[in-house]
Amino acid sequence: MRKIFFIVLASASLFACSNNNYTISGTVQDPSLEGKMVYISIIDNVTGDIINKDSVAITDGKYSFSGTTGAPNCCSVVARSENRSEWPPVYTTVVLEPGTISLVTNDKKNTVISGTPLNDEYQKYLSSLNEVSAPIAPIKEKLSKHRSGEKVLTDAQLKSLDSTLSAIFQKRSVFDYQNTKELINNPAICYTRLPVVAANNNSVEKLKELVAGANEYTKTLKNYRDVVTRIETLERTAVGAPFIDFKMSDPQGKEVSLSDYVGKGKYVFVDFWASWCGPCRAEMPNVVKAYKQFAGKDFEIVGVSLDSKKEAWLGAIDELGLKWPQMSDLKGWECIAVDLYAISGIPCTILFDRDGKILAHNLRGEDLCRQLGKLIKE
Q: Which CATH number is 247-375 given?
């Protein structure tokens, strides 16, 4: 996977410096990129907006950019051909800080950053992350060949590789969390890794620990503020918290509210899903089973779709045999419920009690029927 780096711009007054000039000195060892363009985009880390762009051609395997910076800004540096078949391009994130920043792109289109403190720190992190991740690709290739029909693995080998892959992913996740926490004040890590790590850790305690070391500058940055907002939302939607109402449309176009179902004396299982979501569709037989077993016994299911196309949404309802109430604003991941309930992935489910308070998150499979069996008398 290409190394991806981002960079941020903030008030220069936060980081006064007597010499705030920077130079990005690039060397490209891939002949296919000779004469191609390199684009730089400086990103305002407070708003996320791109505030400046520039470009230059690669000549004799080299290119450069220069400018001034007050705060340690972030930028993306992209070298690419206009031929889309050669994508993805070389895509690098750099911290704009005083000094000469060296970018060396080898013939495999991998880039190493060096020359200034924050960039050296970021590159060390990336190199270690890549080292932890290195065993993943060959294992996934073996599994892909087997599952595509070649059947080159025995059941024992398949189980062993699946187990090994899970262990590597877990190791990488722990590494990513610990290093993002320790390097939270590096703008590139705050911009590139913090959103990923935060999305993979839904525990309020883990998220608070993740950002606890943020300095005053980091606290002004958009990605830090987004995590704080996520923490606040998770606290509002913890077990025991009352439901948060919202309005959408049902399949017939009629406006409905979550409060039409929740808090009305029934246990309500709210299933956030979408027609395009494979795991959602795979889980639906379990939801259908629960509905058939408990419908009419102080129990209701409400589907909240993150679809953006009505035809696909309605088609999936029919195809999957979903007989319970459905609602959607057809805004995809811009769905109003996403921020209200801190949804970072689907399927996502919430079970509400008769009074509309949250009983449980993400009950699936047999756990759903088992939990409902304890609550609802047959």
A: 3.40.30.10
Helix (H, G, I), strand (E, B) or coil at 344: coil
- Tell me if 12-111 shares its fold with 247-375: no
* Residue, of 145 and 103, whose pLDDT is higher: 103
Residue whose C-alpha is closest to residue 352's, from 283, 266, 229: 266
DSSP alpha helix (H) spans, the chain: 117-133, 136-145, 155-182, 187-192, 194-199, 204-211, 222-236, 278-294, 310-320, 336-340, 366-375
Per-residue confidence (pLDDT) for residue 8, from 0 to 100: 33
pLDDT tens per residue, range 203-240: 899 999 999 999 999 999 999 999 999 899 888 889 99
Omega prior to 88 cis, within 30 of 0: yes
State the greatest distance between any 2 C-alpha atoms of the chain, in Å, as a whole number.
78
364 has a pLDDT exceeding 90: no
Q: Enumerate residues 6+ apart whose C-beta is below 8 A from 354.
A: 263, 265, 266, 267, 298
Neighbours of 259 (CB within 10 A): 14
Q: Are strands 73-80 and 90-96 parallel, antiparallel or unpaired?
A: antiparallel
For residue 309, give the amino acid letter: K
Cβ neighbours of residue 331 closer than 8 Å, sequence gap 6 or more:
308
pLDDT digits (tens, 9 = 90+) for 40-89: 988 787 777 888 888 999 999 999 999 988 777 789 998 876 665 665 67
Sheet holding 90-96, edge to edge: 50-57, 37-43, 73-80, 90-96
User: Hey, where are the domains in the chain?
Assistant: 12-111, 136-236, 247-375
Q: How far apart are CA 220 and CA 107, in angstroms?
A: 38
CATH of domain 12-111: 2.60.40.10
pLDDT at 6 over 80: no
The kind and range of the H/E element at 341 are none
Give the residue from 364, 344, 345 showing the smallest Cα distance to 231.
344
Are the CB atoms for 228 and 207 separated by under 8 Å? no
pTM of the model as a whole: 0.71
CB 93 within 8 A of CB 192: yes
Q: Which residues contact 283 (CB under 8 A, 6 or more apart)?
A: 347, 364, 365
Place of tokens 């490209």: 28
